[in-house]
Amino acid sequence: MTESANPEQREYWNGPDSQEWVEDAERYDAMLAPYGETVLDAAALTSGERVLDVGCGNGATTLEAAARVGDGDGEAVGFDISAPMLEVARSRASERGIANARFTLGDAQTDALGGPYDVAISRFGIMFFSDPAAAFANVRSALLPGGRAALLCWRPMLENEWVIVPTAAAIEHVPPPEPPPPDAPGPFRFAEKGSLAAALTAAGFVDVTSDAVDGPMLLGGPGSFDDAYDFLKGNGITRRVLGDAPDEAKTRALSAMRDALLPFRTDAGVRMNGAMWLVRGRA
User: Fold this and answer.
1) Mapping DSSP to helix (H, G, I), strand (E, B) and coil, where does residue 265 land?
2) Long-range contacts of 5-9 (CB under 8 A, 24+ apart)
3) Is residue 129 a part of any domain in this protein?
């Protein structure tokens, strides 16, 4: 992996601040599973195709893609900057006996992606580039002529219940965090309407479309209300919201966040809406 590229994101995704994604891999993937289905269905995978999963994380979408293209020469390659998450992905593939999925450590901005591929997919893995233009040009170059891309990113925070509801409750008790610069890598890097589509077009993709997609999630995956609240307390967004506030203020904020989840209780868990952009294009 090119050590000089995207150093802050490389440090984050390989360090202790992102360890929750490894420790809670099953919960994160259960929570995001409906959105993985969304991007995989949009990719319209067929038997024998080769698939590149950009920012594959713990490999859930890569393994499902491998199953969908599995007959004959079909293969799915997961590509990610996080070595700990790729260890989880490889372990999952081995445990499940999925031989046509493999995983590569690297930065999609600068490193060779292999290929050529028929399809590139990503479930929330493309918002963390310091140089999106270089990354998407690299992805396009790894696709066959006419190859497809189907990418999913978050719409604005205000449209995502799972973020804004607990955050709004918390900032009644702690100072709101400083917003990141608009072009900084992060979950809402392409939240603005048309921004991801514009980045793909600038990288040479054609027939680019962008659709607003809404769908419910179970916060932290299926489970009890307390399971969902425990997940919320430990995630990175909550840590950022609480920041360096005094302990007493943090306690009040967490109590308010818990109360804010109560209207979303169901027998399956805490069900909240996710708001996304589904962007498709061709090389």
Assistant:
1) strand
2) 5/107, 5/109, 5/110, 5/111, 5/130, 5/131, 6/81, 6/107, 6/109, 6/128, 6/129, 6/130, 6/131, 6/185, 8/130, 8/185, 9/81, 9/128, 9/129, 9/130, 9/185
3) yes
Beta bridge partner(s), residue 274? 215
Give the range of the structural domain holding residue 110, as residue numbers without chain letter: 7-156+180-216+274-282
Cross-strand pairs, 150: 121, 280
| Cβ–Cβ under 8 Å, residues 188 and 154 | yes
Q: Which residue has tokens 């840590």? A: 239
The model's pLDDT over 217-245, given as tens digits with 9 standing for 90+, comes to 999 999 999 999 999 998 889 999 999 99
What is the distance, to the nearest Å, from the Cα of residue 54 to the centroid of all Cα atoms in its chain?
10
Measure the CA–CA gap between 50 and 203, rounded to whole angstroms. Answer: 21
Alpha carbon distance 20, 235 (integer Å): 7
In sequence order, which residues have a C-beta less than 8 Å from that of residue 49 and are 6 or more positions away?
69, 74, 118, 119
d(CA 62, CA 78): 6
Burial 13-34 (b: 16+ CB within 10 A, else e): bbeeebebbeebbebbbbbbbe
Residue 105 located in a structural domain: yes
Alpha helix segments (H runs only) across the chain: 7-13, 20-23, 25-43, 60-68, 83-96, 132-141, 161-170, 195-202, 225-234, 236-242, 247-261
Cis bond leading into 187, ω under 30°?
A: no
Tell me if 245 sits within 8 A of 174, measured CB to CB.
yes
Domain count, the chain: 1
| pLDDT tens-digit series, residues 129-163 | 999 999 999 999 999 999 999 999 999 999 999 99
267 by Cβ neighbours in 10 Å (0-12 / 13-18 / 19+) ranks as exposed
Instruction: Give the other-Cβ count within 10 Å of 80's Cβ.
Output: 25
